[in-house]
Amino acid sequence: MADLYLKALNSERKALWAECRLKGLAKDTPQRQRIVEIDALLAAHKAKQDGAKQDGAKQDGKKSG
User: Fold this and answer.
1) Rounded distance, CA 37 to CA 4, Å?
2) Pairwise CA distance, residues 46 & 43, whole Å
3) What's the rounded mean pLDDT across residues 48-60?
4) Coil vs helix vs strand at 46
5) Which H or E run includes 6?
6) How many CA atoms lie within 13 A of 37 on its CB side?
7) Is 34 exposed, middle or buried (0-12, 13-18, 19+ CB in 10 A)?
8) Which of 10, 28, 42, 51 is least buried, going by the fewest C-beta atoms within 10 A?
9) How far apart are CA 44 and CA 12, in angstroms?
């Protein structure tokens, strides 16, 4: 199943990054700050997904064991 939240974050990040590159925006602009926020959200989401996968593997191991 597609992770629409992840897809939306990546899409927004890609669009902002393209705008920043095109305009040559500095690090202190709102667009660049939003990219940093999105990076943090992506990292948190990935950690949450990895944790859920590990928990699922542990539960599957308990069921068969």
Assistant:
1) 18
2) 5
3) 79
4) helix
5) helix 4-23
6) 9
7) middle
8) 28
9) 16
60: amino acid identity, one letter: D
**Is the CB of residue 36 less than 8 Å from the CB of residue 4?**
no
Q: What proportion of the chain, given as a percentage, has pLDDT over 70? A: 88
CA distance linking residue 59 with residue 48, whole number of Å:
16
Question: Of 11-20, 21-30, 45-54, which range is least confident?
Answer: 45-54
pTM, 2 dp: 0.76
The DSSP letter of residue 29 is S
* Other C-beta atoms lying within 10 Å of the C-beta of residue 12: 14
